[in-house]
TrEMBL record, chain A:
Membrane topology: Multi-pass membrane protein
Lineage start: Bacteria, Pseudomonadati, Spirochaetota, Spirochaetia, Leptospirales
Localization per record: Cell membrane
One protein family per Pfam: BPD_transp_1
Domain ABC transmembrane type-1: 67-255
Keywords: Cell membrane, Membrane, Transmembrane, Transmembrane helix, Transport
Protein name: ABC transporter permease
Automatic annotation (TrEMBL), chain B:
Cell compartments where the protein resides: Cell membrane
Keywords: Cell membrane, Membrane, Transmembrane, Transmembrane helix, Transport
Protein name: ABC transporter permease
Membrane topology: Multi-pass membrane protein
Family membership: Belongs to the binding-protein-dependent transport system permease family. CysTW subfamily.
Annotated Gene3D superfamilies: MetI-like
Main location: membrane
Pfam families per UniProt: BPD_transp_1
Superkingdom per UniProt: Bacteria
Length: 267, 305
């Protein structure tokens, strides 16, 4: 059976290898440039290597302010997303009600529609009701599109975990709260953590919706965007880029390993 | 305290609809009020107009913004430019993604498969802005791509490509070709994963049946695999199309500063302060996406999501 497909398989392998190189090399290049001694251009080959830009970045207050704001926003949005997403997934799991499909659709909508639509909608609503831009307006926007990651992760886990455990717990005399606390919660804990991590990464990296809902404050992506358009110290931007790669990649790897064991077959 | 929670949860446990109501209402209030409310406000505002003398928004129903939007040929150019880019990016992404997805689903062994999956997923989730920026470095005149082509003695080829009217430019990072490359790069994983998922779902017995019935590999591919994987391609195309349609960061950073829908929306609401026109403009991608999604639904893409 397999041998029949081998003819195309060499071509397939080549295409896959090139595809993966195409996807991954640019990220490696960014990391490399963070160590360049070149200050003004994107010259290649690099004239030399240095770690001094990490030190320079460390000293910059504007970068710290952006990191602190981004972390605050991501943490609060993730908290809201966990709260709303978990409650809703508990409701949707195992109960039938009118409009159940609408919930899943509604949760996906903020990331399915182009970011510019979400951004301009929130902005126009905020300006119509005279809400001043602050950390909270960014949080409101981010929580809205973060809910989906928690909701989907927790719902998927609930669907896969067997309901007999819940029944056993009730049969053994546990009350509903104890059952939730000692059976359901431990069961969904890693899915919650995974959803939360993805939500954090999503918020930490969001730029389009943020440009519409932030006032004068800069999150890390906004800071970067400003630097792209009006560069001050290019190598410092590269250092921040490496930092952002780490902050967004690590939670995703963790989330992947947290959700891996229970679904060998990814949807 | 625990006692109170105990009683409360038990109380709710026997009142299913009340429990359902309490579990769902936070989400429904949030998404209903904050999100749908905002979308609705946007739609309303698109029917307002801006007083051309005072710059104040007049809150009366009018189609003026839509009239303004469609009257100017530059706006049509923006819409056509954005849609063409979204369409081209989608088609090329599908062509590049298909063999990769095919290899992942059909050829890769159980050890390699999770590695490949992670290899596609990681760039999909990792920083969008950093990825765009990395291409700025790569395509810069003095950058790595020029150097590579120079080493290969192909530099004149780049000049030929860049001298093509309309899509060419002074350098790759100031041309449509460069912008197109970055779009394909950024959205490619969004195309690979749904195609891979739809290929995974094809029962292997079908392939065997086809070959038992005398179908050669090419025939099996064309008559069995491709039709069954097509919903996955359409599902992926929803992402690549919608994301290109709404993006304004890539056209801002890369390209020759000609406007895309996203940039137009941003400028109209920001510098120009014309929220009604910006709102009307952003209704355009919503309408295009609704048409697109209707077609996609007919093609069975939602079952592949």
């Amino acid at each position: 059976m397999r041998s029949k497909w081998n003819l195309g398989s060499i071509g397939l392998k080549t295409a896959t290898i090139f595809g993966f190189l195409f996807i991954h090399i640019p990220i490696l290049i960014i990391i490399m440039y963070a160590f360049s001694t070149d200050e003004k251009t994107f010259q290649f080959p690099l004239p030399g290597f240095t770690t001094k830009w990490f030190g320079v970045a460390w000293e910059r207050n504007d970068i710290w302010e952006a990191i602190i704001l981004s972390s605050q926003v991501a943490l609060i949005s993730t908290f809201i997303a966990i709260l709303l997403g978990t409650l809703a997934s508990l409701a949707v799991y195992r109960s039938q009600f009118f409009g159940k499909e609408i919930i899943s659709f509604l949760v996906i909508l903020p990331i399915a529609l182009p970011g510019i639509v979400t951004g301009i909608s929130l902005r126009s609503a905020m300006s119509l009701f005279g809400i001043p831009f602050s950390t909270w307006t960014i949080v409101i926007a981010h929580a809205t599109f973060c809910i989906v990651t928690v909701y989907n992760n927790v719902l998927a886990r609930l669907r896969r975990s067997s309901h007999s455990m819940v029944e056993a717990s009730m049969d053994l005399g546990a009350n509903p709260w104890q059952t939730f606390r000692f059976v359901i919660l431990p069961n969904i804990a890693t899915a919650l953590l995974a959803g939360g991590m993805l939500s954090f990464a999503l918020s930490f990296d969001e730029v389009i919706v943020t440009t519409f809902t932030a006032g004068q404050q800069s999150t890390v992506p906004i800071w970067m965007l400003t630097e792209f358009i009006r560069p001050r110290q290019r190598p410092v931007t590269n250092v921040v880029a490496v930092f952002v790669i780490l902050v967004t990649t690590i939670p995703i790897l963790v989330a992947y390993y947290l959700t891996k064991e229970d679904d060998g077959r990814k949807k | 305290m625990t006692n109170v929670i105990d009683r409360f949860v038990t109380f709710l446990f026997y009142r299913k609809s009340l429990a359902l109501f309490l579990l769902l209402s936070p989400l429904l209030i949030w998404l209903g009020v904050v999100y749908l409310g905002s979308l609705f406000t946007l739609l309303i505002q698109s029917f307002f107009s801006v007083d051309s003398f005072s710059g104040v928004i007049k809150r009366e129903f009018t189609l003026e913004s839509y009239y303004d939007l469609f009257r100017q040929s530059t706006n049509w150019d923006i819409i056509i430019r954005t849609t063409t880019m979204a369409f081209t990016v989608t088609v090329v992404s599908a062509i590049i993604a298909f063999p990769i997805a095919y290899y992942m689903a059909m050829n890769a062994g159980p050890k390699l498969k999770p590695i490949l999956y992670l290899g596609v997923m990681l760039p999909l989730w990792s920083s969008y802005l950093v990825k765009v920026y990395s291409w700025k470095l790569i395509m810069a005149k003095e950058g790595i791509l020029t150097w590579c082509l120079d080493q290969l003695g192909l530099l004149h080829l780049l000049d030929v490509v860049l001298s093509i009217p309309v899509i060419g430019g002074s350098s790759l990072s100031f041309s449509y070709i460069g912008m197109f490359l970055v779009f394909v790069y950024i959205w490619l994983p969004y195309m690979i994963l749904p195609i891979q998922a739809s290929l995974e779902r094809i029962p292997k017995t079908l392939l065997e049946a086809s070959s038992d019935l005398g179908g050669g590999p090419a025939q099996t591919f064309r008559k069995v695999i491709l039709p069954l994987a097509f919903p996955g391609v359409v599902a992926g195309s929803i992402f690549t199309f919608s994301l290109t349609l709404g993006d304004y960061i890539i056209p801002t950073i890369i390209g020759n500063s000609s406007y895309f829908i996203g940039m137009a929306v941003y400028t109209h609401q920001g510098t120009a302060g014309n929220i009604p026109l910006a709102a009307a403009f952003s209704v355009v991608p919503i309408v295009i996406m609704m048409v697109y999604l209707t077609i996609a639904k007919r093609l069975g893409a939602f079952d592949a999501l």
